[in-house]
Amino acid sequence: MLPLYLSPLGPPPKEDGSADLQHVLTVASDIGKSIENYTVIVNKSTVPVGTAERVTDAITKELKKRGVDVEFDVVSNPEFLKEGDAVNDFMKPDRIILGIESAKAEVYMKELYSPFNRNHDKVHVMGVKDAEMTKYAANSMLATKISFMNEIAGICEQLGVDVENVRKGIGSDTRIGYSFIYPGCGYGGSCFPKDVKALIRTSRESGFEPLLLDAVEERNASQKNVLFQKITDTYGSDLTGRCFGIWGLAFKPGTDDMREATSVVVINSLVKAGATVKAYDPQAMTESLECFDKGLFDDKNLILAQSQYDAVVGADALVLITEWKQFRQPDYKMLHERMNGHTIFDGRNQYNPEFVRGAGFEYFGIGR
Ligand SMILES: NC(=O)c1ccc[n+]([C@@H]2O[C@H](COP(=O)([O-])OP(=O)(O)OC[C@H]3O[C@@H](n4cnc5c(N)ncnc54)[C@H](O)[C@@H]3O)[C@@H](O)[C@H]2O)c1
Ligand SMILES: O=c1ccn([C@@H]2O[C@H](COP(=O)(O)OP(=O)(O)O[C@H]3O[C@H](CO)[C@@H](O)[C@H](O)[C@H]3O)[C@@H](O)[C@H]2O)c(=O)[nH]1
């Protein structure tokens, strides 16, 4: 048996954006209290640069208290899986990052990953701090691509350009690529928002001003308001008596996770402006009960619909927030019959504007 201890804890973000390492350090202390023989402590969490050193200190402290001298190594092995595709990402990783300072630990880690590393060598061995930083840099790079495209979308909209054509046009350049350049109503989830904020914090603490990362974060916060902005531009700021059907609550398709989901921002803004909201999501209905003030449900300002078509009954407009496959090709005739007004706000550019307009709807996308 390999002498490994894998830690996939979720250090929650503190109010200032930094990662709260309390749980990670508690677990480190627990390990220090219990290990008897050589152990490799593998950190799979996304944690700030320098955490492995703090984990080492916490374990050493406990070993000293016990008066024992047990050999151990701390390895940084960040996880790159995506929600909704986790098993596939884990079984077929693009790369395996190993932040290791000891040859002994490297042998064990390579053995651990050997079943996932047969086709070609995907292992990159580097310093522990380098590995910790690699995870933040990867997520921040992806978030930057999205915020960049959302910024381009905003400019396109002003100029009467269709950002979807621009997306395909630039994606075909292999240096840019097609992935993570879909404009939309903002990125959410448990990783990008938290990790960009944490890297901003780390950077500032280190004395380096993170100008670009600040902008990535600011663009995303603003992007989550774009749909509400388009709605109030259409109906005015007082939405009393208006009803909106929302398709999609999860932060992305394929999960019921609503952490940092754009739906929460949009729905709270709509209700605050006086509107009633009917929402439907294929997986996140139960989760959504925890994500809004109970009063919204009690006062029937927010109603959870039985189906995607129930959500639009009597609605002034349909607002698409999460691009689940089942929302891709709606029955426009049924929508037309059930809705009160005939407008679609497409937060993920899922629909062909000409087709939607041809079906008798007013269409608003992102950057087109
Ligand atoms: N969610 C993802 O897709 C994903 C992908 C890659 C990396 N990560 C990183 O992995 C880490 C975990 O993320 P998550 O989304 O799974 O978080 P999560 O909050 O869903 O899960 C964290 C788990 O840790 C447990 N835990 C907390 N304190 C503990 C303690 N003291 N002892 C034992 N268990 C404890 C919690 O009960 C929970 O089950 C984070 O650092 C995150 O950035 C997440
Ligand atoms: O072109 C794009 C791609 C994604 N998104 C949004 O970006 C967010 C994140 O999407 P995704 O990356 O698919 O989800 P996560 O499960 O959060 O995965 C990210 O975060 C994980 C946790 O760190 C990493 O392990 C993964 O590699 C990284 O992709 C979602 O709100 C998407 O809607 C866009 O707006 N446009």
TrEMBL record:
Residues 245-353 form the UDP-glucose/GDP-mannose dehydrogenase C-terminal domain. One of its GO terms (molecular function) is UDP-glucose 6-dehydrogenase activity. Its EC number is 1.1.1.22. It comes from the Bacteria. NAD(+) binds at T46, E83, K194, R259. The keyword Oxidoreductase applies. Keywords: NAD, Oxidoreductase. The active site is at C191 (nucleophile). GO terms for biological process: polysaccharide biosynthetic process; UDP-glucuronate biosynthetic process. Coiled coil: none annotated. It holds the Pfam family UDPG_MGDP_dh_C. Pathway: Nucleotide-sugar biosynthesis; UDP-alpha-D-glucuronate biosynthesis; UDP-alpha-D-glucuronate from UDP-alpha-D-glucose: step 1/1. Substrate binds at F80, L81, K82, E83, K135, F180, I181, Y182, P183, G184, G188, K252. InterPro entries: 6-PGluconate_DH-like_C_sf, NAD(P)-bd_dom_sf, UDP-Glc/GDP-Man, UDP-Glc/GDP-Man_DH_C, UDP-Glc/GDP-Man_DH_C_sf, UDP-Glc/GDP-Man_DH_dimer, UDP-Glc/GDP-Man_DH_N, UDPglc_DH_bac. Signal peptide: none annotated. It catalyses: UDP-alpha-D-glucose + 2 NAD(+) + H2O = UDP-alpha-D-glucuronate + 2 NADH + 3 H(+). Belongs to the UDP-glucose/GDP-mannose dehydrogenase family. This is UDP-glucose 6-dehydrogenase. It comes from Desulfoluna spongiiphila.
